[in-house]
C-alpha cells in the first residue's frame, strides 16, 4: 500500500458501515486519519474499534444545519486541517412503487438526506479547504441518478440532484486546488441494498452486463483514487462503476 494520504484528514458520512466504512479502511491503510460520521452511536463505536487509532467518530444528523456547522468546525480545530470529504450517507426510501404511489413525506425525506445532507456537509468543509487551497470532495451518487430506476423515483431523482451538485461545485472551485466529483455505482451489496425487495435488486442487477453486484472493495478503490492527491485534473465529473451498464 502507498502512503498517499499521510497526514491527511478525511471526513466520511455514513462511515460506520457499507461503502463509507470500506473507504475509511482504505484511507487509513494509506496513511490518513479518518473521522466517521453517522447517527447510530453504537455502530460508530464498533466501527472505530475495528478501524483503530487513526479513526475517530462524530454522532451527527447530516440534515441538521447548525449541528453540521458546529461538528465540522470542531473537527477542523482538533486536527488543524480538512483534506477530504466523502458523502456516503444516504437512504433509498420506499421502493418498488410507481410515481402515483409515492408518499410525499417519504419523497422529501429521501431528498433531505441524500441532497440536503451532502450540500450541508460540502458547504461546511469548503471554507476550511479554501484556507489551504486543497481539498477533495466525493459525493456518492448512483447510476439511478444517470439512468433512472423504475420504482425508485425519490432515490433516482435525489441522486440526479447530487450529480448536478457535483458538476456545479467542481466548476466553482476549479481554480482553488479543490476538486468535487460524484461517484455513480450500480447495485453494490450493502446492508441498504439487502433491505430492498428482492425484485427491485433483480431489476437493477439484470441491467448490468457483468450480471453481478459491485463489491465494497471495488468502491473503495475508486473513491480513494478520486480523493487522492493524484486525481488533480478531474473535477465536476461523475465516475462510473456499473459493470458496463452506463457507458457515458
Break the fold down into its secondary structure elements and pairings.
Layout: E1 9-13, H1 18-29, E2 33-38, H2 41-51, E3 55-59, H3 65-79, E4 84-87, H4 104-132, E5 135-140, H5 144-147, H6 153-172, E6 178-185, H7 191-194, H8 198-205, H9 216-226, E7 238-241
Parallel strand pairs: 1-2, 1-4, 2-3, 4-5, 5-6, 6-7
Describe the overall structure.
The longest helix is centred in the middle third of the chain and has 29 residues. The chain has a seven-stranded parallel β-sheet with strand order 3-2-1-4-5-6-7, sandwiched between helices. The two termini are 31 Å apart. Strand 1, helix 1 and strand 2 form a beta-alpha-beta unit. It has 248 residues and is of the alpha/beta class. It is globular and about 50 Å long. It is built from nine helices and seven strands; from the N terminus they run E-H-E-H-E-H-E-H-E-H-H-E-H-H-H-E. The protein has a single domain, classed as NAD(P)-binding Rossmann-like Domain (Rossmann fold). Helix 3 packs parallel to helix 4 and helix 4 runs parallel beside helix 6. The model has no long low-confidence stretch (mean pLDDT 95). Helices cover 46% and strands 15% of the residues.
Amino acid at each position: 500500500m502507498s502512503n498517499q494520504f499521510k497526514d491527511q484528514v478525511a471526513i466520511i458520512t455514513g462511515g460506520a458501515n457499507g461503502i463509507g466504512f470500506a473507504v475509511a479502511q482504505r484511507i487509513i491503510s494509506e496513511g490518513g486519519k479518518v473521522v466517521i460520521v453517522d447517527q447510530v452511536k453504537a455502530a460508530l463505536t464498533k466501527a472505530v474499534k475495528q478501524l483503530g487509532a487513526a479513526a475517530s467518530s462524530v454522532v451527527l444528523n447530516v440534515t441538521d444545519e447548525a449541528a453540521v456547522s458546529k461538528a465540522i468546525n470542531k473537527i477542523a480545530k482538533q486536527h488543524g486541517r480538512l483534506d477530504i470529504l466523502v458523502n456516503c450517507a444516504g437512504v433509498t426510501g420506499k421502493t418498488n412503487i410507481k410515481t402515483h404511489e409515492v408518499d410525499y413525506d417519504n419523497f422529501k425525506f429521501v431528498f433531505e438526506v441524500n441532497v440536503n445532507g451532502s450540500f450541508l456537509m460540502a458547504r461546511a468543509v469548503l471554507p476550511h479547504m479554501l484556507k489551504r487551497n486543497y481539498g477533495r470532495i466525493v459525493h456518492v451518487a448512483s447510476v439511478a441518478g444517470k439512468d433512472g430506476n423504475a420504482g425508485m423515483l425519490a432515490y433516482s431523482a435525489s441522486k440526479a440532484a447530487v450529480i448536478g451538485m457535483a458538476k456545479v461545485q467542481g466548476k466553482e472551485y476549479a481554480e482553488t486546488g479543490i476538486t468535487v466529483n460524484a461517484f455513480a455505482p450500480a447495485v453494490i451489496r450493502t446492508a441498504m441494498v439487502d433491505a430492498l425487495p428482492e425484485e427491485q435488486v433483480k431489476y437493477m442487477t439484470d441491467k448490468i452486463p457483468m450480471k453481478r453486484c459491485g463489491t465494497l472493495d471495488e468502491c473503495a478503490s475508486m473513491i480513494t483514487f478520486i480523493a487522492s492527491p493524484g486525481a488533480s485534473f478531474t473535477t465536476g465529473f461523475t465516475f462510473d462503476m456499473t459493470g458496463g451498464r452506463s457507458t457515458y
